[in-house]
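Q: Sequence in, structure out?
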Amino acid sequence: MINRLRTSKADFAESLNNLLRVSSKDAEDIAEVVREIVNAVRANGDAALLELTNRLDDRQVTSMAELEISPERQQQALDSIDPIVRQALESSINRIRTYHERQLQALGSGADWEFVDDDGNRLGQKVRSMQRVGIYAPGGKAAYPSTVCMTAIPAQVAGVEEIILVVPTPRGEVNQTLLAAAKLCGVDRVFTIGGAQAIAALAYGTQTIPRVDKIVGPGNVYVARAKELVYGDVGIDMVAGPSELVIVADATANPDWITLDLFAQAEHDEMAQAIVISPDSQMLDLVAQTLDRRLEEMPRRAIIATSLKTRGALIEVRDLDEAVDLVNQIAPEHLELALAESGEVAARVKHAGAIFIGSHSAEVVGDYSAGPSHVLPTSGTARFGSPLGVYDFQVRSSIIECSARGSIVLNRDAAIIAREEGLYAHEESAKSRVEG
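A: Exactly. Output:
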């Protein structure tokens, strides 16, 4: 059911590359469809949104008012959900808020900063929050209230003035828990639109939906391509690929726990990736046996089986040093360290979106309740990308105020460098301040 690889095999590098590669099949066709949708919304606004929503989401709406969820309806959803679910949402939201408040403090509370140099010039930065942010929360096959919490709370803590949520609702079916989460998180407006058309509406604005400064949140391949297309006209968090989990385990790990963590990852969708790396072949044998034994218990077993067969792997390495090297090469979205010395290994990890240290730290708590945002870099982009955080909702302006004495020093140097670059107007502009 799952691929078995060994780093000692001559063809390992090729096998790993094939496993990690995300298929680009139909990419050009998808890009063209997305381009047409984005252009239609940009040109025709609400009219295009209504037509596309009716056609693509099997809806029958005639006005934009039917696509917006009122605060009263959100409150009704909150009042209707199971009290146990509400308590879990509220508890998770509190932890997410606490984590990001600590994050803000570590960044210096997002405050302006400045200093005066020896020549009397005042230099620094002005830090401010974005005015309006758009959140995309997946709907369709599965709705994710957790995504609302993991995106809205960091934006709120950062000081964003207005948060707009879009979520697809095929056939008009609205997830009540997602609406409840939006209410608890203080989302300002909610629209039941999805896909590339929702991204275009947020990026360019329509008669009803205001243009935002940045779009965050995961979606399907059409959403990812749309975010990629509109980037530059609007900010985005990242272009996310399928979700990923790598588990590094030794003989002390619990094979049942590892198996369930693999299942939890694989049930996202058929393209999700779940990998176990271990120097202990017996551990990998136990995991393989447990996978086969417990798969039938899983309600989403068809998705899990496809995911594990096409993109999952049990990888045997020579030792933990090789395991760490492999992790840093893969740069996974999620990394679990189910090891006797997890802390020591964690200190050597350079590239991972989120690191779960020790067997008790399951990736699933990162999805829902631990506190850090579950919006993470995928497809190896953890080499240069970071988890969504308050810093994603802040912008900075450089401050430069020259003193009379400092202006002479700075402009003298600027004139010399400008002349070297052949930018003569730059040189003259600088010299004019020196020569008075």
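The chain has a mean pLDDT of 95.
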